[in-house]
Design brief:
This protein is 33% helix and 19% strand. It is of the alpha/beta class and 411 residues long. The chain folds into two domains: 36-88; 113-406, Zn peptidases (Aminopeptidase), CATH 3.40.630.10. Strand 11 (284-285) and strand 12 (288-289) form a beta hairpin. It starts with a helix and ends in a 5-residue tail after the last helix. The structure holds (2~{S})-6-azanyl-2-(sulfamoylamino)hexanoic acid, calcium ion (2 copies) and zinc ion.
């Protein structure tokens, strides 16, 4: 939307808020979606967890023996009919916000898209020799996709190992944008850490979704991007099912645009994944991929995950036993620093079209997913209050530093 129209819409909204505020805050309307959160116990194998993930429920998180899901009454009945034990989880008492488009009270420490860009610009202005803020493209709705480089002599492409951090592929996982922001802040403030590294940070890879999640004044529990789908009113593609390696191969995504794990009409059909792919492809210089290591940040469940996600096998084309051992060793070493549970991605449940599989299969990037705090919906799920941001992002400082260290000598 052009800026002047945004201003007019904003003014109209402000008038609306002043008139309607007492009504809007008095009685929050019933949510459209009657799905409720449950913990499904006794899922002792990846196959059992994958089966539940495939059943159409919204998977919130999981662990070695369980998954947490949102299920409608009918879906819950179906799972119970299969013999599953479903324990109801608390519905979070999420506040409504009279100022639509902002985070509500208790969450204002999180950054909106505009606040994030402003923060990145001010970091670049404060550390012009070490921080460069730019963009690697545009989202479906036309927002610039933010990209930050942190390094000594930041304007120069030096012969230093390059490491990539990506955040917020999933809209509602707001804590991850704060994680990426912290990485930039911390590396900017400590020249030693980036003396002989080039660190790239993409703090909000799905800005349309993240903004949509806070647009109405109540969290929308939104996951996907905001791209319309032909022939249906259902909106959005799950960006972490839209990557081109073994896309849609293995029942680890959905072909239904109404599903939260809709893989899109084709690999890289989402502009957000296509442009991230193009940028990573562009880091092949003189035939060599410059990026050696990568973390894609998610919430929640407190896990460290590595490829592949599309198969239960530890090894598969392009990933041999030595690679698997290195992934495990490095994943476990990082998990030692933050107390997360380390495992191959498919040990949680099968996913196809995920970013880690593509980064490894296509570019031999040592690519991990971190599922951050909390462990459970019962501790806030996707929406922990802003009071945890400092603690739960700082919790990953050592893992980030370890990956930066190891980036120099990875095979
Ligand atoms: C996802 O809850 C899960 C990897 C399992 N193979 C990663 C991620 O895309 O499903 N989990 S999440 O959506 N953040
Ligand atoms: Ca440098
Ligand atoms: Ca370089
Ligand atoms: Zn996620």
């Amino acid at each position: 939307m052009p800026r002047h129209r945004r201003t007019i819409v904003f003014l109209l909204l402000m008038v609306g808020v002043l008139v309607l505020a007492p009504v809007a805050t008095a009685a929050p309307p019933e949510p459209d979606d009657p799905a409720a959160p449950y913990r499904a116990e006794g899922l002792g194998s990846p196959a059992e967890r994958s089966e539940v993930a495939r059943s159409g429920v919204d998977v919130l998180g999981g662990g070695r023996n369980h998954l947490e899901v949102r299920a409608s009454d009918a879906e819950a009945a179906g799972l119970r009919a299969r013999g599953l034990e479903l324990l109801p989880l608390p519905e979070l008492p999420l506040p409504r916000n009279p100022f639509a488009g902002q985070f509500p009270p208790g969450y204002t420490g999180y950054h909106t898209y505009d606040e994030l860009l402003a923060e990145l610009d001010s970091l670049a202005a404060a550390h012009p020799d070490r921080v460069a803020a730019s963009s690697y493209g545009e989202s479906f709705e036309g927002r610039e996709l933010p990209l930050v480089k942190v390094s000594d002599n930041v304007a120069v492409d030096e012969a230093e190992p390059e490491v990539l951090f990506t955040c917020n592929q999933h809209a509602r996982e707001h804590l991850t944008a704060e994680m990426c922001l912290r990485i930039v802040e911390r590396l900017a403030a400590d020249p030693q850490l980036v003396d002989d590294r080039e660190v790239w940070v993409m703090p909000m890879t799905n800005p349309d979704g993240a903004e949509h999640d806070i647009a109405s004044g109540a969290f929308a529990l939104w996951r996907k991007n905001r791209q319309p789908n032909e022939g249906t009113p259902e909106v959005g593609t799950d960006l972490n099912r839209n990557w081109g390696t073994e896309w849609g191969c293995c029942d680890g995504s959905s072909g239904d645009p109404g599903n939260d794990t809709y893989r899109g009409a084709a690999p890289f059909s989402a502009p957000e994944t296509a442009q991230l792919r193009d940028w990573v492809d562009g880091r092949v210089i003189g035939g060599e991929q410059q990026i050696t290591a990568h973390i894609d940040w998610h919430t929640f469940s407190e896990l460290v995950l590595w490829p592949y996600g599309y198969t239960e096998s530890d090894t598969a084309p392009g990933l041999d036993a030595d690679d698997a051992a290195t992934f495990r060793e490095l994943g476990e070493a990082m998990a030692d620093t933050n107390g997360y549970t380390p495992q191959q991605s498919s040990d949680l449940y099968i996913t196809d079209g995920g970013v880690n599989d593509w980064m490894w299969a296509e570019h031999d990037v040592w690519s991990f997913t971190f599922e951050m705090y909390p462990e459970s919906q019962a501790e806030g799920g996707f929406y922990p209050p802003d009071s945890v941001i400092e603690r739960e992002t700082a919790r990953n400082d050592d893992a980030v530093d370890l990956l930066l260290q190891r980036a120099a000598d990875l095979p």
